[in-house]
Every structure is written in C-alpha cells, then in structure tokens.
Please model this.
Amino acid sequence: MIQRLLLWADDRFGTGTFVHHALKKAFPDHWSFMLGEINMYAFIILLATGTFLALWFVPGHATVVYEGPYALLRGDKMSEAYDSVLHICFMVNAGLLIRQIHHWAADIFVAGIVVHMGRIFFTGAFRNPRELNWIIGVLLLFAAMFEGFTGYSMPDDLLSGMGLRIAVSILQSVPFIGTWATFFLIGGVWPTEILIERLFITHVFIMPALITLGITVHLMILWRQKHTQFPGPRRTEENVVGAPLFPLYTFKSLALQFGVIAMCVALGAFVQINPVWLWGPYQTWKAISPAQPDWYIGWLEGALRIGPRWAIHFPGHMIPSPFWPGFLLPLVIMIGLFAYPWVEKFITKDYRQHHLLNRPREVPVRTGAGVAFFVFMLGLFLAGSDDVQAAYTHLPLNDLVWFYRFFCLLGPFAAFWITYAIASDLKKKGGTHRAERVRLKRKPEGGYEEEPVA
Amino acid sequence: MNTARDRAIAASLLLSIIGSVGFMVAYAKQMSTQWEGFALACVFAGFMLAALGWSRWIIPHEKVVDLRDTYPQPLEERAGMVDWWEHGVANVTRRTWLTRMLYAALGVFGIAALFPVGSLGPEPDDALFHTRWKRGDRLQRADGSLVKAGDLNEEAAVTVFPEGSIGDSQSMAILVKLPDGLVKDAPQGYIVYSKMCTHAGCPVALYRSIDHRLVCPCHQSAFDVTNNASVVSGPADHPLPRLPIEIASDGYLRATGDFPEPVGPGFWEHS
Model:
C-alpha cells in the first residue's frame, strides 16, 4: 500500500531519491538523542487533547450562575470560562481525563525541553554550525513556558487569577512602557472583560502556530545538518553512523512515542492535577494560600519572593522592585542563553565546525558553568515554595528567604568549583573515549583474532 | 517459530487490543476517569512494548553510515550565488533616487502599520491614580451588607468596597478593628487600607492579630497595621495606602475621600 503510494509520488513529484535517502538516514545510537523527541511527542499530545478541550471551552467573561452537578459550587456566580471548565470536568465524557492529560503533557513538554537543552549544552552540540538551532531551541523553551502559563490562566479559577494578576503587575513594573503595555495587552485596568478572549486566542492559535513553526524549522535544520554523534569507531567529523530511519529507528521512536503517550494518559487518569473546582471562581478580593504556579514558572515565583526590595524613585517616576526579579532577570537569562555559543567561541577562540560531541568531563569549565546555572535556578525554584517549607519545618519564613538568597548567590560558585574539580579529575584519568568494542573470533588454527564492531 | 520473545510481542499487542475494547466499554458506559484512562493507557503501553520488542528482537540491528555535506559549499557555487545576487541588486537599483523613494515608502508604511496597536486598549490616562472611593461612600461588604460602628469585634478584619462597587479590584479595601486608642486617628479603632498588595497586586488577605500584621499570601509581604501599613518584611516596596474614614452621625462608617496615593503595585508614572 504505502509502497504504491511512494511509487505514485515518484511518478508525479520525482521524490524517489529523496525518500530513498530519507529511509536510510542514519540516527546515532545513544539514548540521550531521544530526549528531544519526547518534546515533539508531548506537543502532538497537546495538539490532540487541546483541540478536544477547545471544542468545549468558552472564553467568556460574562457572569453565569453555576447549576452543574458539583454541589459545593452550585448557585455560585462565576465567569462562563470557569463554568465551561467545570462542565468539561464533570459533564463531558472523558473530559476530565483529557484535561488532565493535557496538563500533564504540558508539564512534560517543558521538562523535556529543559532536559534536551541540558544534553545539547553539556555535549557541546550547540557549537558551529548549530548556533541557529540553539537559538530556536531557547525561543521554543520560552514559548512553551508562556504557552503553558496562558493555558492554566484561562480557566479563570482563583489560583489562575492570582497568577495572572502577578504577571500583569510585573509587566506594569517595566520602566517607560510598562503601564501602556499593560493597558494595551489586557485592555484596561485589571481585571478586564477582554482578557480571557485574548488569552484564548493566544493559547489556541498564536502560540501553537509559532511553536509549530519553530519545531518545523528546528527539525529542517537538524535534517539538513544531520545529527551530531559521540566519538567512536568509524565515527568522524565527516560522517554519521547509526541506525537507519526505516525500519529500525522508526520502531525505536514509535516505542518512545507510545511510551510518552501511555505515561501522559496514565498520569491523567490517576494523578490529579490542578483540580480547579477546589479553588473556586476568581474574585478580585479573594486569595488562597499556599499558592504555587506550575513547576516551570516556579523559578520566577521564587525570584519574586527573594528579590531585593529596591524601588528606585525619580521625580514623578519610579521603578518598582518586581521589575528586577520579575522582568530583568528572565530577560538577562534569555539573552545569556542566546549568547552562550558566541561567548564560548569568544573565550576559546574555537571557531571550527564540530559534529563530534564532547563528553561533559572533557570541557570542565563549560560543564561547571552549566551546573552552576542549574543550581542557581534550583535555588529560585525552591524559594518559590518557601512558605510551605516554613510551615512544615517551623523555621521563620524570613530565615528561609535569606537562606535562598545566599543559596542563589553562593551556590553556583560552589557548584562550579565542585563540578570543575570532578570533571578535571575524570578527564585526567582518561576514559574520554569509549573503549573500542571488538568481537573475539577463534581461529581454526587456534588462538584468537579481534574484529572491530561498529 | 514461536520463541518466548515472539510471544511477548504478541502479548503486548493483545494488551493493546484489550485496552481498546476496554476503552470502548468504559466510554459507552460513562465509567470513571480512572477506568477510561487506565484502558487508554493499556492501549499505548501495549503499542510501546510491541514496538520495543520489534526494534530489539525482530528487526536486525543494521548500521548505516551517512556522509555529511561539507559547508561552505564549493567555492565556485558560492561565487556564482554572490555574483548573481550582486547582478540582480545592481539591476534593481539603477535609479538611485527611486531606490531611496522605495525605502522611504516602506518605512512610512512600517510606521503606519503600527497605528492599529493603539486600538488594543484604552490609554492609561489617570486610571491607576484613583479608585471609586469618594467622600460620603459607606463601606459595603462582599455580601452586600453595610458596615456600622459596633458591627465588628476587636481584631476582626473584613473586606469592604465603596457602596455599589462590590468586586472592584482597584477599590477593594480591608477594614480592621483595632483596640481603641492603639492608633490615634482611627475612629473607635477602625482603620481601612487598600487590599491590593503594593508588590504584585494580590489581595492582602491574611490578618494576624497577634502583631497587627496584614500578610500577602502570594509573596509574604507583611504590613504593620498600627504604623500606616509600612512594610515590615517581604518584597513589597511601599506601604498600603490608607483610606480616610469617619463614623457618621447615622452610625455608618463612611469614606471621607479617595486613597491619597495610587493603590496596588508600582509603575513608572507612580512617584
């Protein structure tokens, strides 16, 4: 069947040679190369489940009285948006399942991007000629975080409303343009009647389109430049050694795809996530405590909590303190991630093209810097739940705030030093290349001979 | 030949089939999220195991070697590209003044295309500088009832709005009844602050009577109610604005004006 389709296509478009090479395309054999695919498959799950949810969700601000089956909210006033989410949860067959799969897939999507980026960073895969794909990857990371934030902000429950309010306050804190940007983006003074519609179109059209475009370009560049690979027998800068796309890699990748789907479905079935009916509808004067965002916004929440109380006053103007941790810090981090390939080139003066990867130990400075950055982000992330930690440990909250301030300032240096020491030590001991695998063959006349295995 | 491996793959596919049938049954009978999800997870877990088995045991582990294209491409092709581009550009820009005119037209259009951005929202104007509170407004709770002197016990705190504006975010305020005399100019101990946190706009929803602190649940800014809501701890950088009130002759608490400063988080035009 498919073979006839391939022949049909070749008759009309002359695609035979391309498909031939595509089917035989080499995919390097290392588990870490499959991390990026997790994100692609999570994104496919998000598109499928998101389409289902969009068929039911009402992006409306108008007030309705809840008359559904959830007794604790019956008779309460709420927005059409929140009402429709409750409808999805309690009335649409498999609605809650799909919603929870969607939410879990989103969390896995962002997590997968972070882990994939870690792989790219620590093995030096971002080096010439792959700088553009690194940039697209960083853009995709921030796009995915923003997409996730708009997604969990739409249901108009109390928790999401608080998160949105904080995000709007951060935008409002930007010097010169903050107030105007806020009024234009949300359409007036918080809370506006147009906001849910704008979140909706951002979440279901603008961002998915941009992310799809980003992934497409990302993969086209990957296809054109071919994969990187770890050094090993027969592997050089001029070739790629691996499993052919069809059939071996196709089945490996399918196994991963079904695994990711099965994981998301099982999580959606058994592990409750964001039970919006418990939070109640958003009302401006209400709040819940403790309140934590989805994991990938946790570092921003932590930054806001331990950020310095620096308000700068000018005659008739001010820069409020949320600007530094809420806007400037993420901006600096994003620019730093963009710039990293060029920073490394500038420092090492290595402008050559690289298709063979480093093991993390081979470049202790880079590895140390990467671990230091992760420790910094971990500190911010943990600070985002300092109130919960204070409640459990009975430590004074302000002590925890100061602990995380020191953690974020000093921890990265310690992490760099330790990582650098370990990596240098491993590097000295050798083992930077995998031992060549050989097959021992017994000779008819006695004795053995070695035969290299690729 | 039926090896144990073949049977394992067959069992995986059987798991998938059972899962699909189970999902159809669970869906048709509108069973719980857990059953529907469990069946669906079995479908995909079965597919996963089958594909895994196939790739490990059925399909031979061939290796292929792709040669990379080298970049940049051969010099003569690159030179050809550059030549043809320069040739084309030279042909287009034969009239210098027309080229400049074209750039000017594109630039002006670029500016014109930005104008519709202005329709996205209203201008901020002075919207952040005032709320709906005005002289004479009574204090209304979220349930609609009006606050009279003597309604609140000592150390009680309640959310209030200007009469008729329940839910208005800019105007939301918190009324605290302190022990009489603790704050000099608080009539009978009643004192009102904006409920919008000056850090990131969350409602300052927690009142701790033991040390008269208002605490924001979002980032734990704490404000001292007895000292003009000055910041005691946390990331907030200025006090909560205080609403001037009086106890009118009819016994109702009434505002004597709007908040003296903008409420909520800081912004560029805030001084």
User: Anything to note?
Assistant: Chain B touches chain A through 76 residues (CB under 8 Å).
